Predict the 3D structure of the following.
Amino acid sequence: MKPTLLTRHLATEDAMLLFGSRLAAAVENGAIIFLHGPLGAGKTTLTRGFLRGLGYHSKVKSPTYTLVEPYEVAGKKIYHFDFYRLKSPDELLHIGIQEYFAPDAVCLIEWPEKGYPLLPGADLACYIAFNEQGREIRLEAYSARGENILNNL
């Protein structure tokens, strides 16, 4: 399946938060969303916007050391993963990684390439890159659920 694409330019952190909020509104039920980008690109900021879009207003931190932060917001189970410090995908077996991927769960995964081959495929991949005026975001849908999210944006 050739991925469906959507690109956006985001000039500020507030724009990234708003985009994350809109992304949350576009997810009807569960989804696996891979977040790609260099350090400081805005992956956790996008996740913070996603959670705020669902009504969560407490602190959102990157789970760099814990690997996963669970949230229950607006009747949805959201799992924010950060695999930056992962030395081996086998470390994910210790947290029972497969149990997080319920059909109705939303999994936002930073540095997903470090979790291969233990991760299921993404419904949506989000690539965040720096540019002179802020950030460039490219979304690629890899499933019918991912295409539905793009159509809802």
